[in-house]
Amino acid sequence: MDLKENQSVQGDLALAAAPQQPVSHPEPGSKKRGVSRRSLLIGVAGLAVAGGAAWFSRSLSRSATLYTYRGHSGPVKGVGWSPDGRRIASAGDDRTVQVWDALSGAHVLTCRGHTAGVLALAWSPDGRSLASAGADGLVLIWDAASGHQVAAYRGHSGPVKGVGWSPDGQRIVSAGDDRTVQIWDSATGATLFTYRGHSASVPAVGWSPDGTRIASGCVDSIVQVWDATTGADVLSYHHQTSSVFALAWAPDGQRIVSAGADFTAQVWRPAAIDQTLVFYRGHTGVLVAVAWSPDGTRIASGSQDSTVQVWDSASGDTLLTYRGHDHWIGSATTNAVAWSPDGNSIASASDDQTVQVWQP
Q1: Is the pLDDT of residue 278 over 90?
Q2: Residue 152 pLDDT
Q3: Domain final position from 34, 63, 92
Q4: Closest by alpha carbon to 357, among 334, 339, 341?
Q5: Are residues 58 and 167 in the same domain?
Q6: Lowest mean pLDDT, pick from 161-170, 228-237, 325-334, 343-352
């Protein structure tokens, strides 16, 4: 049973149990009213919908959609929850990074400084800063409270498509079309070293949870795992048969999921060469984003088939399919899907110019 069929049954029960609330359509500049956490827990059909800024709207359909953020004026490429779960940041082709309230969808601030589309973003572990990677070849660091730009990294010679903070927040890794992965000091911007183990564009990169290794995925179909301090290769994963566009480490660091143009997501152990555990084949289009649930039991994958699918990380069984978007999930990007820190919600970014927050 897919998400819409399942929610149809649950929606009938919820409608019988709770009164419907009118949908608000705020005008630009209208006064924002908060939405209580208690009302969010009542259920999708009985969700109390308050007024708000013109940037977002809410859905009371029988899907699991909690609200839709509409602050961007172009395709949205990346999304991420703050470590405390209170805010969400999104990045898009309109050259902005936007921060908004994770509960209500109310716009908080906009970061402007890129001269081309923003392709990826990442929160610092302490939640005080954001890093954004752009088609302009820049990685910019922002103060997450004010939206002010505090640093710019210019080490790349082409579009930057992947970015991530080390677990201790002291280093940043970035990767892109210049075939390099670069590690640099988050405080000074000084390049620490450049990894050159790939033969083509590198759209996917991620730190291991313990900070000792980095995995980077290339459009030559190979994922490299290497030492985050020395750059020494640990292993190469060759089971993807086409471009790798997304990857993520499991929370315990014992597995990696990679995905791409061969329409598959694959779960494997970085401690053993080519030890594939799961092949997931639920999508009918290129996969562009993958994210682990905080407990490591589920994976959400986003595709150019316009769906986000949630599946069991051990068995590969599909648990649900989210069909709320009407265009590709963040094409040509790597972090268009993100779990909330408590594992109760997912945010997905799309070329339909929206970010949708929903319950898996």
Answers
A1: yes
A2: 97
A3: 63
A4: 339
A5: no
A6: 325-334
* Residue 50 shares a structural domain with residue 124: no
Same domain as 70, residue 56: no
**Residue that wins the pLDDT comparison between 213 and 33:** 213
Same domain, 157 and 26: no
> Residue 273: its pLDDT value, please?
65
Work out the number of other CB atoms within 10 angstroms of the CB of residue 300: 24
Q: Are residues 13 and 157 in the same domain?
A: no
Q: Please write the tens of the pLDDT for every residue from 183-201.
A: 999 999 999 999 999 999 9
Dist CA 298 CA 310 (whole Å): 7
Q: Which amino acid is at 337?
A: V
| pLDDT band at residue 328 using 50, 70 and 90 as cut-offs | confident
Gap between the Cα atoms of 139 and 27, Å rounded = 35
| 240 and 260 Cβ atoms separated by less than 8 Å | yes
Please indicate, yes or no, whether residues 175 and 139 belong to a single structural domain of this protein: yes
